[in-house]
Amino acid sequence: MISAILFLDLLFLICLLVFTGFLLIKLFFSLFIIFGAPFVPAPIEKVRKMLELASPKQGEILYDLGSGDAKILIEAARKYNVKCNGIEINPVLVRMSTRRIEKLGLQNKIKIHQGNFFKKDFSDADVILIYLFQPTMVLLERKFLSELKPGTRIVSLAFTFDNIPFIKSLPDYPYIRLYEIPTVDRIK
Ligand SMILES: C[S@@+](CC[C@H](N)C(=O)[O-])C[C@H]1O[C@@H](n2cnc3c(N)ncnc32)[C@H](O)[C@@H]1O
Question: Residue 71: in which H helix or E strand, if any?
Fold first, then answer.
């Protein structure tokens, strides 16, 4: 009887520890919302549609701002043969994605830069993919309009810009949108 009670106590303790650990990990990844967005990986089907909409050309420079697990970059490097750059603020994700890229032998095609994309220069981009958060889009819009070269394509999953010209979305995926930096009306 006593050993049964002890066993149940132990089981309860283990469940509590696992649950607390899970909550702490969740909290850690969610904390990055204060910099721009929490880590919520885009499903691969949507990643493929984002890339289809961006239609990167061979040799172009592509960025994923908030590159997370580098899923977008890996897909882009493999399918489109472009030069891929990720900017990611979470050091755990930077380490994990860098390892994954090395394992796949893609280190010559994909570079992950650790840091805050608001403080980075990505003005050499031809294509930018983003899956962030609406308040972050408002802040990024000004940086994009003042720093990116005309014609730079931006594909956003779920969130929108007000002042960057919207070009199109795919019929079955209206929440994946292509924008393009205009030649006129640049913010100084
Ligand atoms: C919604 S996730 C998207 C991950 C990946 N791009 C994808 O689509 O699967 C947003 C990512 O942006 C990162 N992030 C948030 N704010 C950032 C900032 N200011 N600079 C760099 N990365 C940031 C988060 O750590 C998180 O990994």
Answer: helix 71-80
